[in-house]
Design goal:
The chain has 85 residues and is mainly alpha-helical. The two termini are 13 Å apart. The chain has a single domain (4-84), classed as Non-ribosomal Peptide Synthetase Peptidyl Carrier Protein, Chain A (Orthogonal Bundle), CATH 1.10.1200. Helices cover 56% and strands 0% of the residues. The longest helix has 16 residues, at 4-19. It contains 4 helices and no strands.
């Protein structure tokens, strides 16, 4: 798995390119993706595929919660926890 800073950069780039069409604007790692309407339920599935391919683990259905997928920062923390466990 990529280190934390590298993963955060990759995720910010992915979200920007995929959901904001390259216009990053004020997207920060702490931006709440669902609440701000940046990512919808289909977008969460795209994030799952990206995380699985980038980090090399499968995301369980029970892990698809805002605490893990609510922001880039939460995704990075989640991936770090999964990699350590």
């Amino acid at each position: 798995m990529a280190d934390t800073a590298e993963l955060e950069t990759k995720l910010l780039t992915f979200v920007t390119d995929t959901f904001l069409f390259g216009q990053r604007g004020e997207l920060a790692a702490e931006t709440l993706l669902l609440e701000k309407g940046i990512v919808d339920s289909t977008g969460v599935l795209e994030l799952v595929v990206f995380i699985e391919e980038t980090c090399g683990f499968k995301v369980a259905d029970a892990e698809l919660v805002p605490e893990n997928f609510g922001s880039v920062a939460r995704l990075v923390k989640y991936a770090g926890t999964r990699a350590a466990g």
